[in-house]
Amino acid sequence: MTSSSDGSAKDQRPEESTAEVRAADVALDTAGGALEPSIVPVSSQSGEPGHQQGNVMRRIVMGNGFVSVLAVIVALFLGGLLIASTDAQVAKTAGYLFARPSDFLTALWSAMTDSYVALFQGSVFNTRQGFAPLLETMTVATPLICAGLGVALAFRAGLFNIGAQGQIIISATLAAYAGFTWHLPFGLHLLLVIVMGVLGGAAWGAIVGILKARTGAHEVIVTIMLNYVALFLLDFLLNTAAFRRPGDNSPISPRLDESATYPVLIPGSRLHLGFLVAIALTYGVWWLLNRSTIGFEFRAVGANPVAARTAGVKVPRATIMVMAMAGALAAFGGVAQVAGTEKVLTGGVAAQIGFDSITVALLGRSTPWGTFFAGLLFGAFRAGAVQMQIQTGTPIDIVLVVQSLIVLFIAAPPLIRSIFRLEGKKKKKNKTPKAAPEAALANATGGAK
Amino acid sequence: MSATTTAPTPGSTALPAFRPSLKVPVSLGVLALVALVFFGFLGSDKTAEMKISDAGDAVAVPALMIPGQVGGIVFGILLLAMAAYSIYLWTQGEKSPKWLPIAFAVVFVFALLVWIVAGARQPSISLAGLVAGSVTLAVPLVFGSLSGVLCERVGVVNIAIEGQLLGGAFTAALVATMTGSPYIGLIAAAAAGAVVSMVLAVFSIKYLVNQIIVGVVLNVLVSGLTGFLYGTLMVPNKEQFNTPGRLDILPIPLLSDIPIIGPILFEQSIAGYLMYIAVAVVWFGLFKTRWGLRVRAVGEHPQAADTLGINVNATRFWNVTLGGAIAGIGGAVFTLVTIDSFTKDISGGRGFIALAALIFGRWNPIGAFLASLLFGFAYNLQSILGIIGTPVPSQFMAMLPYLVTIFAVAGLVGKSRPPAASGIPYVKG
User: What compartments host this protein (chain A) (predicted)?
Assistant: First the structure.
């Protein structure tokens, strides 16, 4: 214990101002005799993921995958309990629980599993269609991955991009407009559709970056507000002659030209080229963040804007660029919706994608490939939920519950660790270096109470 | 002794400002010109009729008849005069007084209204109905933004207002139906809002999860949970779970007959009266009591508050919980006052407007209340526009609260500054 605190105290020195503040606070606390000095280093345990103190972004980014898996399991379990709690059969058997507990347990088990089995059949594999549902999952996941990458990139630069929804809407609007009004040759048309959409999304994101960099307006507020502005703008446009189908009063655009849409990859499914674009984007973001100077600057700004500025990074410029890029990434999601999946523009073109993408980025811990697989998982939830509702009558909303629970558990690793108390202890015995932070953590939460 | 303890403050080196900001005079001037040109010179020459009392009212007041174009020019000149006064003050090196932008806004909104009504197919509007409708729509917003004020003043960002409203709305409908009493439903709604808030508090204070993340996720969670239970419980058994009945309107005799303000102030359900009480109590509590001083200290500088012996995290926890309870009552308004049943996502983004109102109201209960009224007005106008048939698309009216908020946080309309420690978790040591 003492040795660990010594070691961490050394680590503390390189950190500049924050470390000093911490040291001052600690002096106060120990003077009062309230706390052991051993909790001091908690602030500098940045290397160990998921701990108290420290930068939240860092925690999002560097958490371990194990907690993610546990979080998914716990969330699915709780979601199952929720389904079971409203199940008629479970309620009936609970009436004679003590007489025949086996009936109750059977009913409970089937209530919990039936929905998930249907979900799996609707999203991955079933005997009737083979792996066709998996293609649908990939289709649904495409915009989620793109928008999730946008959110994740902003997270890495220390910005909360809640505005993927608005960015998707704007890009989808512009892309669709280019898709159904202009009539251009194959290839060129699709390219222009993509460019229009991406420029729109990038501009919508850049507004946030500019406001943040120039006036200090908080990006969370601005993005939330811009989401609604975009929504109403789309609603307005769909009621103008330019966007409506000729001779039709309902707010739905004409179908995009064949030449303006992503080609279908596998005949008989809806899976389109946009999915490959999403893979390419994932790789691109990975390269940007881990191999390029600009990505390094982004991460530096996210880790510590003051230090980044001292080191010569132009923070306002980086802020604007990150938000523009985040908007552009989300825009690919919007393009995938109109040019790939839906092929028309409606008021609900963005559905819940923008909001889901936040949970996708959080589940993916803001790493590009993590976001990719998280997008696939949530895509599977979305695709399978439809089948689930048809087969078992479980409302689609259960997906929202499971998704949000997953993110809550992932965001609070100590909670998951306390649920799986035994595993945490086992790990401690095996790996001594991990024990110190665990102890410090316990100490810190005890102290904070 | 005193000389040694005075430490130099880091901000003291900044030069004193020679001139106040030009932002207010310039934006007022631009808006006044816009008003003069669009509402005046380009305005409709029809006469706008503003009915003040309805046919059945005890006190009859003649309707206001305002000719569109002339009215627009008069209002435009009035606005220009105000802007000129603001610019004059600026040349004298003085700041515009606080009442000026508010008075400007009131005149501007009225000029806008005249312009819209005069340009409509049916140039007549009931002012009393418009105002009363705005207040009705503003009630949940006021409760929501008060919740935000309480949370942010103590240093916790509350993005979960939407979830608190929705949780309150659902629980109110469910409990009121099951117990047969809307009043018990109202109490249950407060409890539900408090529970949602407690999750926010526990995750952000104990587990130090980023408050914005918890807020965003809680909104999704509550939406999913209420949507799921709505689908499994309420849709199949509407009689049993989703017929809450309404809170009675309790008019105060005589006072409720006063034109315009009578119905607003004295002809409300208990939730409406509670709103006025809540605004007053929260304002008084925050700025006039020891409790409020502590709350604000925790929100501005938790270390200092802690040093003085205030339990920072406990203060935060209970404030956030209280805020949730208030928002829960606001949610109950949806299902017990506005309409008498719950539908999926009934709060429809109103929690985010409440958030906007709180920012536009500069983290002050009275400000949040006035901003909520303004946004409620915009909301109501939006639906009325559709009925009287105007050239202004209702979507732009719907955008207004959000645009105004963006301008507010960007510092174009005054300066909005959140509590210093808002959003930052506090860890002792």
Answer: Cell membrane
